[in-house]
Specification:
homotetramer; Dihydrodipicolinate Reductase, domain 2; 14 strands; about 400 residues; AGPR_AS (chains A, B, C, D); about 15% strand; alpha/beta; seven-stranded mixed β-sheet; Rossmann fold
């Protein structure tokens, strides 16, 4: 038995996840791992079969597999020791193999894609839902209750369903599920995620913005007024839909702002910041489209509270994130680049003095498809199912 | 004589420059053209020879021809009816042809590059100086007084030579010339440029920022405090010097801020805004490097003065620039893209409401190598020599 | 009168076109210019009005204005002294301004786009037809006979209408017009273009391939067998249609071959080479899609005829193109880059020895939207209407 | 003991490497794994320590860590269960941390870089040598004999030291080591690699070319004459050295051939093909530089032997590679894209008919930094040390 236990740790440690210096924090989850993994014979049997991905211990359904976030889930799970994909849906690609839609995944042994209405969830334990905004509420409403669900759409992110209707132009069709949904900003709401059945995975912009701002607001280090957020995103955030505006010739070698004044991520950002502040915060938020596929930077201009210094901001972020695997405050003065995190689940951040006295500049970078979407989704499901949250997520950034 | 006059107008109008609706404004300059151009026989003789560029009526010296701004001057002058290049210097490329350094220019008939110390200015009427910051003061000090000079470096942009020393780390070596230098932000300081002998051509960031802000500050429509400028630039602004940081593999598909808090363009921006305000303005200015060669966008976040509306800002910019050839306020709600101006001398701008009441977002775009450098330089020299300022500058943007 | 003549030359020479060293070749066309342009008073009147583009002496209709080649025609004509656009059609954008579809052209004074069925051709002298393949035959069949037409589609390029049907999957619907159509590879078929009413403008790949190969085949310097053509194209050649495959995220940072064995340009290339050879030539032709918007390179691998040397190939190309404005053989050993010609109507080429004895490597580069489409179309219309063929085409390449 | 055995398989299988369907082939290597890994207690102890990378069982020295291939080794080893980096050298960056040179690797626990002359190899078992061509021979000559070495430079690739001198312009300084060196084209020379002490890791172009051609030549399916290879590479192959030619502004949005006729990879390619043919083969090889960071495609034009069909070529490649983890022949008609393999160790290939009867077109793609450099190097070291060769290499491609 103890051998089995060690073996299971062996399986996890060292290359797919690690726990440097925070054994105590993760202790509960580790014990959970041992329980889930079972005895030696079960383990070895399971592991020996694991080259067939669909024999892994947690059976994953992937809804909306034919988009970029779906493909990214597949990439990440390719090296996950416990999660195997047993169901894939893609309405317009039903009957096709993943390899025909995403040829870079042909080496993976994956189920044929089916239409979501034909999906059999009886052999599925958990679901990543990568469907478009607006269609997701109905589909999730129809899923069996035994499923753990991480929803990557915006459909369950806004607690206030009136706000949802205002920004998305249609009434919320699953208000009772909305009450149940937990907002999955992992490092901020980890405890809530642990016991959640349905997690609303945060948007990419809100992730890059809330991670640095929430700790500063909680500690009352910055003013609530005049928070100016200038965000820059790669194009993959717009998905794989064929749109003239996203053609190579339209995007390459040029930039522009979009959704000025009225981007749909604004209420999500304000919800999170207001929660931290215990009072309503309205932000200035302007996203920009960059000629790059992956990557996101938020440059955030804030007023420090009376008497607060840059040093105070830095120290608060340092303490808040020092034990985190995926959120890294850089050394003083070091500027985060989106290249630093491409293809990985990391968020790098730093804080700088402004020329205007009393103001600070905060910069954070993520990969919009990983920490801004599929990576954080996997991090959340790891937690929901009691696995170490970094399992299968320790990909280092691809650079150059 | 009248035929000659008409002919000269013919030469100018319709394709190389045009004057739609502002004949009266340009009348003086047009008359100057006629005077310069001379009588019929001179004109026709001159024009017939003009396929040899160095026989055009104004003989141009191009110092520092081997950099990007030098090459851009050559590109623009290729179709200029009056300016012909008769001298090119490039110390490290002395003895080489321009075509060997910039093969895209092999069809141009250009003088061999010489070292600046070997340059003969006796057959030169005007000079574009494209040399690096710091070396320019000494060289311009040594030039004959009969030359009109447009300097594209930063060496004469800051009126306060102490400020120059503070930001550039060396004492100003030509303080008497500094007094003579006129800051060449054409649309704002056109009258001063007209009579200048030495024009300090503005930096790219300052151009993109001052063009929208100066009219708003002059009209007291925005507060002087908390002007937040988030600028994004293509890489060509860094020049052709071989630096690891500017390698393709380092830049492509990624973004980052640089010079946070301390970019050298900050004092130049503040000088221009403070002049407009008649009081010291300190701005927040953060430049970002974009994975694109040309193009620049400044996204500027401002507080409107008490009682002022977005409509007021729009109207002020509309009136200020309605007769301008190269500065265009877009229709309400239309977002400028850097693609809209690539390869051209245009600045497109617009103003938008912010989510935070009382604030506004101003966006301007230019091509950093044209309106942000060589194009504005040519616009200035046209003015200094009495030609219509759009002469040789009506290239339409290259898109896609 | 002689003054008028000189003035007209003045208008043309020096910046919009030039004639370096080939007065004799162009003599006829120059005389034609004089005749068209008329006397001094006519000229000056005309020129003074030319700031209103639609008052220029030749009234141009642009069919299919909302695509990239249409926009490129507008860009080129912006500085053309004689051609003004008076009619623009775009079925799906009927009623819209060009500036709303291509904001980089908002400074141009252009007619509102109409549906082609609503077009009034009574005030049009010549037409650029930028419509999709397959629809063009019917539309051109319906045009008034007084119009000069340059068709940029593939619909009239193949003389053999059976071949057209084989490659385009539908019968040719205007076989009588096909007989009339002249293939507009300007430097090769200039005399035929002169008297043409309908010119089939060559495809981009065929232009880049035939320009170097035709003179070599004509001079019997290369074998007809085993001509291997590896071509690389920017994405803009695929047009502005919204296709998943052409999204930024699908194209950036990756390459691939397409149309392997069966690209539609193959019969067009073989038609031109076979004509030059007076016998049927079958080539190996493989196009590749590049992560760039504009630019095309053909790398061509050939066997030299018995006893022929690289020197012979070089000399033949040198002689063939020495008087050409737009086709440039580079100095020996200099490799053409697509950057050398971006945004311009030039074709740069060179020839190199192969490691395999008896073989040669030929490289040619063009901008697929200029020399490969709209630029060559304008070159052809200039010729068809008796203007110097470089009129309005002397844009220098945009680099960097 | 049997538990330990199973555990060790467990550790290996399922996510870091897998052995689908070729247990028999790998049997020897698996047994070696068991021997190396040791009993249950050793294993679990080892694994529990493995979060500290430098406690892994094989101690790796990385010479030349500050270049792109060095950084790529670090990225790949981050998830390798057995190899830990204990020594890093970088002469010009001696004393610095890897995170300061490559900030995307700051989360890795790595030794400080030292100068190679100060390196202590007593605690190193194996070395990746990522030094520049020309300097490597002397350094490897000085290394202790107990080290296993994979050299990523070109210094030991050419068996004929006269040929080395001819192409690299200097005499070979370690001819006795050259005799010992094994050329590490893994799938072709796996048996030789197994027992090698010094492996010369193949160049990126030669890898992409030999993998498809060697099996076809061995089976006498293609003619030796007139093999035309048109290769296209991303820029990262040129390394991180600051060169004007590799600046973003020089590379983006343009392409060109380089090293026409005389690229240094030609003799390496010909050596491999000639070995397979048992007679001297001379190829036509023209590399092209692509505006992308990673990725390489070789488009290869060949004549089939008398009576051979495309089907025969396909079948030979299918059989040759059907058991390979990293070389994949695509389904008939499917075109490989470089995107399909970016960031991974895969080589995708396919074969197509040519329009010219009797000819075929072969296309292969790799990531030049992985299968073309660091990935294949790790694959080789795995083999040299008796680990399953896919250990730590099952990263799926990063797309989009």
């Amino acid at each position: 038995m103890s051998t089995a236990t060690f073996s299971s740790i062996c399986c996890n440690q060292g290359y797919l996840w690690k726990e440097e210096g925070k054994i105590s924090k993760l202790k509960n989850r580790n014990e959970k791992v041992r329980l889930n993994v079972g005895g030696a014979s079960a383990l070895t049997t399971k592991c020996m079969q694991s080259s067939q991905q669909n024999k892994k211990e947690v059976r994953i359904g992937l809804l909306g597999a034919s988009g970029y976030t779906g493909a990214e889930i597949v990439r990440l799970l390719a090296n996950h020791p416990y999660f195997g994909i047993t169901l894939m849906t893609a309405d317009r690609k039903a009957g096709q193999s993943m390899g025909s839609v995403f040829p870079h995944l042909i080496t993976q042994n994956l189920p044929t894609m089916v239409s979501v209405k034909d999906a059999d969830f009886s052999n599925v334990d958990a679901v990543f839902c990568c469907l478009p905004h607006g269609t997701t509420q109905e589909i999730i409403k129809g899923l069996p209750r035994h499923l753990k669900i991480v929803d990557l759409s915006a459909d369950f992110r806004l607690r206030d369903i009136d706000e949802y209707e205002e920004w998305y132009g249609q009434p919320h069709s699953a208000p009772e599920l909305q009450k149940e949904a937990v907002y999955g900003l992992t490092e901020i709401l980890r405890e809530e995620v642990k016991s959640a059945r349905l997690v609303a995975n945060p948007g990419c912009y809100p992730t890059s913005i809330q991670l640095p701002l929430v700790p500063l607001i909680k500690a009352k280090l910055i003013e609530h007024r005049n928070i100016i957020i200038d965000s820059k995103s790669g194009v993959s955030g717009a998905g794989r839909g064929a749109k003239e505006a996203n053609l190579y010739s339209e995007i390459a070698e040029g930039i522009y702002s979009y959704g000025v004044t009225r981007h749909r991520h604004a209420p999500e950002i304000e919800q999170g910041l207001s929660d931290a502040a215990h009072s309503k915060i309205t932000v200035s938020f302007t996203p920009h489209l960059m000629p790059m596929t992956r990557g996101m930077q938020s440059t955030i201009y804030v007023e420090m509270s009376q008497g607060v210094t840059i040093e105070d901001l830095y120290e608060q972020l340092r303490k808040y994130y020092e034990d985190e695997e995926f959120v890294k405050l850089l050394d003083k003065g070091v500027v985060p680049h989106t290249h630093n995190v491409r293809g990985s689940n990391y968020c790098f951040m730093n804080v700088f003095p402004d020329r205007i006295p009393g103001r600070a500049i905060i910069i954070s970078v993520i990969d919009n498809l990983v920490k801004g979407a599929s990576g954080q989704a996997l991090q959340n499901l790891n937690i929901m199912l009691g696995y170490p949250e970094n399992t299968g997520l320790l990909y280092q950034p691809l650079f150059p």
